[in-house]
């Protein structure tokens, strides 16, 4: 269950990062509220996951999910480049996340 909580926290990190793009410097109410709620939820769930997981593992996986998800969202939603080297680097981050998951009791 802890890993599921951490996954949801990471997905909320993606949500707030993408939402931040649409706040226009926190001048738009609905995207700003969505972003702030997503931020709070993400950090709250990360804190819950850290009850059971080591600090370094939980934080690295959380930021890794956020990094990969945000990069993919940028490509899909915002037309950011999706070249082979960029995708390869994202794959390396995914490998690191999976490695931490497999090596953590």
Largest sheet: none
The backbone outline, from C-alpha atoms, is flat
Beta-strand percentage? under 5%
Secondary-structure-derived class = mainly alpha
Q: How many E-type strands?
A: 0
What string, H for helix and E for strand, traces the elements in order?
HHHH
Task: Kindly state the percentage of residues in helix.
Answer: over 70%
Average pLDDT for all residues: 96
Keywords: Cell membrane, Membrane, Transmembrane, Transmembrane helix, Transport
Membrane topology: Multi-pass membrane protein
Subcellular location: Cell membrane
Transmembrane segments: 33-50, 57-78, 84-103
Any overview of this molecule?
This protein is an all-alpha fold and 105 residues long. Helix content is 82%, strand content 0%. The protein has helices at residues 2-22, 29-49, 55-78, 84-103. The radius of gyration is 15 Å and the shape is flat. The chain starts with a helix and ends with a helix. The relative contact order is 0.16. Keywords: Cell membrane, Membrane, Transmembrane, Transmembrane helix, Transport. Its main location: membrane.
Keywords, please?
105 residues, mainly alpha, 4 helices, 82% helix, transmembrane, cell membrane, EmrE-like, transport
Task: Give the helix/strand layout.
Blueprint: H1 2-22, H2 29-49, H3 55-78, H4 84-103
Helix pairs in contact: 1-2, 1-3, 3-4
Short synopsis of the structure:
The chain is mainly α and 105 residues long. It has 4 helices and no strands.
